[in-house]
Amino acid sequence: MRLSRYFLPILREVPKEAEIVSHRLMLRAGMVRQEGAGIYAWLPLGKRVLDKICNVIREEQNRSGAIEIMMPTIQSADLWRESGRYDDYGKEMLRIKDRHERDMLFGPTNEEMLTEIVRAYVKSYKDLPLNLYHIQWKFRDEVRPRFGVMRSREFLMKDAYSIDLDFENAVVAYNRMFVAYLRTFARLGLKAIPMVADTGPIGGNHSHEFIILASTGESQVFCHSDYLGMDTPEEGVDFQDPAALQDIVNRWTSLYAATEEKHDEAAFAAIPDEQQVSARGIEVGHIFYFGTKYSEPMGAKVTGPDGVETPVHMGSYGIGPSRLVAAIIEASHDENGIIWPEAIAPFRVGLLNLKVGDAATDEACEAIYAELTARNVDVLYDDTAERPGSKFATADLIGLPWQIIVGPKGLAAGTVELKRRADGTRETLTIAAALERIIG
Ligand code: ATP
Ligand code: MG
């Protein structure tokens, strides 16, 4: 992509309305535009990151055996009357009337609709296990939308729903998602810690919030410091092997980790002082077993091996991709801007032409651009007439992992500069060596 033909509305001023660093950087880097309270348009750079995050999530959901669908954003109120949640949900639900005066709503979540789909098609234990997910916009009329896309009213969610014959099978489904989440967050460059969360009237211990530690987090969390160094499951983990999954879950739940609502002072005090972590955290995912809470009132039943019909056991598993964009920036930035992890960087390389119009510099940049493009490396070529200082500032602000800096002086000696955004290291290399370093 040539920057001269791209749409990257950089802000030089620090936006006053933004209270936290991720919100400031997202506005300054031209990633999002506020269109209303808690409602954002995603501009090209932001959209690329959002898509990359969704793809990592999708790959790990698919690997675990979940199947992608797409449910609508607009739902019928009648569906929610069946579960009893139409009245319970309160003001967070955006209620709408269509032209026939029918009550509709903009979905804040999809348990009811998914249960309705299951009820229509799934009749036998032989159709199970099943896990269906979608990545779709949700609307929750939050009392206090704030911190940009971190807590917005319209936000993207990956929500998966598992359907099983009984509790034992539902636990296997829960563990699959638990392991898939560990892998997903690790691939996004995050240390997400599964913390015991509230199960409400369902009871049991199958509810975990995946939390990343950040000073700007909205909740107070408590955990053992060893979580920060724990190895995440390998790509080859066998999702068909319940014992292997249980081992991983056991290890990841063996130490203390809880959100404020579930905090146990005594258990926390038993951790050696130097290993106690009490910090602020951002919830990036939540997995939850809720049994027959919806299948029972809505009549989603299957016939078991014994010929008896029973309501299916379900769980739901959410991740917030739009919140993740902000959370990743909170975890990875410096005073000059964002530092994207390679896996989700909007472009891998920024190519900076320091003297547009100089024949040799233009020619070298064109050659590098063509070579990277041919090798399927995403590159943003700064071919604008801006001064070098401003190009450096923009490149650091938008945080691409690599910068190739091309100017007439270096070229005269046959070299370019290669800068790694993560640690700021710069190397003077021939063009071939710089490309080799990136392409490998
Ligand atoms: P929170 O406690 O932060 O309000 P929640 O418990 O209501 O979140 P869930 O219903 O578990 O959230 O939703 C699943 C995921 O969706 C959350 O883990 C989070 O990543 C994301 N999410 C929830 N609410 C918002 C929001 N207002 N803005 C952005 N992302 C959100
Ligand atoms: Mg939650």
Largest sheet: 9 strands, mixed
What is the typical, i.e. mean, pLDDT? 97
Beta-strand percentage range: 25-35%
CATH architecture of the largest domain: 2-Layer Sandwich
By secondary-structure content and strand pairing, the structural class works out as: alpha+beta
CA radius of gyration is: 24 Å
Catalytic activity: tRNA(Pro) + L-proline + ATP = L-prolyl-tRNA(Pro) + AMP + diphosphate
Domain Aminoacyl-transfer RNA synthetases class-II family profile: 38-341
Protein name: Proline--tRNA ligase
Keywords: Aminoacyl-tRNA synthetase, ATP-binding, Cytoplasm, Ligase, Nucleotide-binding, Protein biosynthesis
Task: Give structural attributes.
alpha+beta, BirA Bifunctional Protein, domain 2, Rossmann fold, nine-stranded mixed sheet, five-stranded mixed sheet, 14 helices, globular, binds adenosine-5'-triphosphate
Describe the structure.
- The chain has helices spanning 21-28, 44-63, 77-83, 85-88, 111-121, 167-187, 242-252, 265-269, 295-298, 321-331, 359-374, 388-398, 408-412, 431-439; strands at residues 32-36, 39-42, 67-68, 74-76, 94-97, 103-106, 130-139, 154-164, 193-196, 207-213, 219-224, 257-259, 276-291, 301-303, 309-311, 313-319, 333-334, 337-338, 349-353, 379-382, 402-406, 416-420, 426-429.
- With 440 residues, it is α+β, with helices and mostly antiparallel strands.
- The chain has 2 domains: 7-71 and 110-338, BirA Bifunctional Protein, domain 2 (2-Layer Sandwich), CATH 3.30.930; 347-439, Anticodon-binding domain (Rossmann fold), CATH 3.40.50.
- Strands 3, 7, 8, 9, 10, 11, 12, 13 and 16 form a 9-stranded mixed β-sheet that branches. Strands 20-19-21-22-23 form a 5-stranded mixed β-sheet, with helices on both faces.
- Helix 1 (21-28) packs across helix 10 (321-331), helix 2 packs across helix 6 and helix 6 crosses helix 7 (242-252).
- The protein is globular.
- The relative contact order is 0.14.
- The model has no long low-confidence stretch (mean pLDDT 97).
- The structure holds adenosine-5'-triphosphate (ATP) and magnesium ion.
- Residues 38-341 form the Aminoacyl-transfer RNA synthetases class-II family profile domain.
